[in-house]
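Thread: Modeling a multi-component assembly for a lab meeting

Hi all, long-time lurker, first post. My supervisor asked me to bring a structural picture of a complex we are working on to next week's group meeting, and I have zero experience with this. I have the sequence lines for every component (492 residues in total). Could someone generate the structure of the whole assembly? Inputs are pasted exactly as I received them:
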Amino acid sequence: MRNIKLTIQYDGTDFKGWQIQPKKRTVQGEIEQALHKIFNQKIRLIGSGRTDTGVHAAGQVANFKAVTQLTLAKIKSAINNNTGEDIAVVTAEEVNESFHSQYSAKTKTYRYWILNDEVMNPFHRQFCLKFPYPLNIAKMKRETRVLIGKHNFKSFQGNNRVNQNQDTVRTIKKITIKKDGSYIQIDITSTGFLYKMVRNIVGTLLSIGTGQIGEGSMKKVLNAKSRGKAPKTAPAHGLTLLKLAY
Amino acid sequence: MRNIKLTIQYDGTDFKGWQIQPKKRTVQGEIEQALHKIFNQKIRLIGSGRTDTGVHAAGQVANFKAVTQLTLAKIKSAINNNTGEDIAVVTAEEVNESFHSQYSAKTKTYRYWILNDEVMNPFHRQFCLKFPYPLNIAKMKRETRVLIGKHNFKSFQGNNRVNQNQDTVRTIKKITIKKDGSYIQIDITSTGFLYKMVRNIVGTLLSIGTGQIGEGSMKKVLNAKSRGKAPKTAPAHGLTLLKLAY
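Re: Modeling a multi-component assembly
Sure thing. I ran the full set together rather than chain by chain. Output:
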């Protein structure tokens, strides 16, 4: 039994997210369909984690186990030939038996991409949020500091899947905010993310950047440990799962 | 009467090209509809030239004349608010009465974008041609030299609109081929282009790059002055109208 690790890119626009669901087009569903065709049997694909409807990936990782003589190059091209053009397997590697895309992951990095302009660039509109209001980037950067380290991020967890018993403690390793012309990239690296956590942090940062909420707001929201305290969630299409570290 | 010059970007994927056509979604049609709404009368938008179905623009230029008190910023935002997200007016300027987007143009630059890899990047698939076969870039560059200058480009004119009497002489000012990783950009600047001329030159360059046709082929094709001699046309979606010079 070989354990095959895939690095996958996808344009999330036309997918109902990563996770397989009956009668819906999902990334996991589409790749599992390809694996079924290639290996002539049902094969479970283990992703590093779900991404929501409309969220993209530049470096999602998934693995599956199979008994096969196919070379890695053949496996890669066979999957690419049996999935839509909005999915690309960029590498296929053989890893040891114990490798698990989700449990072996040390950190995960998401990027939120913003065009801070009144006019969208038509070539980026599916991957980038148009945000027309002036933003104070220095203030946004300062406010991210309280998020670094091990915290209870309950305030940034999406409502719909809130589970009273779920552990909402995560460790954010790094947050960078880069401005290049009118484009802004917010990169967040963490040991793990709660449901909609990045989009809720970005939503809060945007409210801070416009001055809608004041200096010190990020700390207040974090300490509240309640979703109701955080400003609204940033839209899905600006978010990309950038990379995993193992 | 003011003469307003627009610089326009568009993702050509969902348009039947630039030129207005009944019951078809075209860029000119969509902007003229917006102008009609804004100025409450039919206004003709003059483009620098047509782009075909599926061809994109990063710097198309068009102008229209109107009697209005609206500021340029208002005109720009009003058009953007009344067109799809795949069109963006990036600048609106006032120009003198005699300015004509097509006739005043000195040169036009097109870019053809290629990913020379077996796997497409899902984020670029609508703007870039996937070309999986090895290409000899140095040879391609050498073969472009015979195209520079004033020539009869009849061999590179698309068949469907061939007019025996049309002047097929144009002056190509510059061709650059740049490779960056697996991406290749072919930029062509000319005083004007015949129908499908860029895509036919790129098609020929790709056949030269793979070795399908030999050294000296570009000269042979050019001298033939017959479309039948040139290899097949490169697909529309890799092509972008980059800029106009006046």
